[in-house]
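During the reporting period the student researcher (J.K.) took over the structure-prediction task from the postdoctoral fellow and processed the backlog of single-chain submissions. One of the processed entries is reproduced below for the supervisory committee.
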Amino acid sequence: MVCGGFACSKNALCALNVVYMLVGLLLIGVAAWGKGLGLVSSIHIIGGVIAVGVFLLLIAVAGLVGAVNHHQVLLFFYMIILGLVFIFQFGISCSCLAINRSKQTDVINASWWVMSNNTRHELERSFDCCGLFNLTALYQQEDTCNAVSWTMCKSRGSPCQMCGEKFLKHSDEALKILGGVGLFFSFTEILGVWLAMRFRNQKDPRANPSAFL
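J.K. obtained the following structure tokens:
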């Protein structure tokens, strides 16, 4: 049977949703692994990653069941939800690729000052830095900065490296990676919408010829 027929569309849609299921399980597993090893301590980050993984898993299960059973209602809602996810993800990915260094600085500044002191100190220990972009604003005493670099800087008489500089060093690369990966997956979602729409309008050759499409 040529590709584009009922069986080919069904198999392609099933394969795409299996990939989505694996990605969802991977997100859930990585979040749990990171929490278990203490690599990520923020419950908000862990919860967000797990929520995305569960949401993607549910969409994939709905699409897979709809494809296997040629279920018109499931496939319809699958198309709608996946289309909305594409719009949201495409916009976020383009924003990640378009954000410049000045905007990154503003975002880092805004995020830093809403963090608790414990979270700031944890980041300072992890990145071996002190303060954000202005050491004198908050870190004038040694005991206010828990980074190892504070003692090292004092011993050699040179200024400590600020956390903002380290954050900016990696944020641009991270945003490009996130934007690129997001764009790639957003186009696979468009493929999923097209496959689901095409598959819904195809007649099962094994079904009753007079049955509703």
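The committee noted the following: Confidence is low (pLDDT under 50) at residues 135-144.
J.K. will present the remaining backlog at the next meeting.
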